[in-house]
Design a protein that fits this description.
250 residues
């Protein structure tokens, strides 16, 4: 064991338990609970995340389906029924610890690779970008978790990481209703100066999709500049989930 590991042991980002050499990012108990919550089903269609087709209406017309889906996510954001997943998302957004980013990115990358390869698409033929944080959020937390997710997903899938979008001073989307989200996204999001996307296929990477207003605005900007396709990859979709099955007790 390295001296640095003794002085600064790796800890589970959720329960803060010290991780042993065999544990990866989450302790065994939290890893099992997270996996169980990711298997929860959508309350609207009854399908798990990898089969749910309840795409936010704002985004649907502007995104490009791959294998029958234009939005891919690994779970649901429902703090009441899926509290551990909600806590991991909060850690992703606000903690400098990169463990939560790694947990989500691994699952997102695996889901993306399965989806693309199942219909003959190669992730390496796509570019991956992210929906940037507001300047206020960047100042508060000191990092852009969307870029972290996109970078890790690029590394795992072979997609080419690029920064294509900029965001001006704006309110955070989570504080707004559906109409406010649309107006805020329209006013604040723009294509980065010098960005070239003509003929490119773009994966938009984000942490959670709610109304889809920001993704819709980004997709319109990219398509207007000549992008061939825009696909949305996100960790979670906001929506009520059916409670996951309880673990069996021997």
């Amino acid at each position: 064991m390295r001296v640095i590991d003794l002085l600064f042991p790796r800890r589970c980002p959720l329960c803060r338990a010290v991780l042993d050499a065999a544990s990866d990012r989450l302790c065994p108990a939290c890893a099992e609970a997270f996996s169980r919550e990711c298997a929860a089903r959508c309350a609207a269609c009854g399908r798990p995340a990898d089969g749910c087709t309840c795409v936010p209406r704002a985004a649907a017309p502007h995104l490009t389906p791959v294998g029958g889906r234009a939005v891919l996510f690994i779970g649901f954001y429902d703090p009441e029924r899926l509290p551990l997943t909600a806590r991991l998302l909060y850690t992703l957004k606000h903690s400098p610890d990169r463990a939560a980013s790694a947990v989500f990115a691994r699952a997102m990358s695996a889901a993306l690779t399965r989806r693309f390869l199942s219909c003959g698409e190669k992730p390496s033929g796509w570019r991956i970008t992210y929906l940037p944080r507001t300047p206020a959020a960047l100042r508060r937390d000191g990092f852009d978790h969307g870029r972290r997710l996109a970078a890790l997903c690029a590394r795992s899938t072979g997609a080419r990481l690029c920064t294509l979008l900029d965001r001006s001073g704006a309110e955070e989307q989570k504080t707004l209703d559906a109409q406010g989200r649309r107006e805020n996204a329209e006013a604040s999001l723009r294509l980065r100066r010098g960005a070239s996307v003509r003929g490119e296929k773009i994966i938009l990477c984000d942490d959670v999709v709610t109304s889809g207003a920001t993704a819709a605005r980004a997709a319109r900007l990219l398509l207007a500049e000549g992008a061939e396709a825009v696909f949305l990859l996100t960790a979670l979709r906001t929506g009520q989930a059916l409670p996951p099955a309880s673990p069996e007790v021997p």
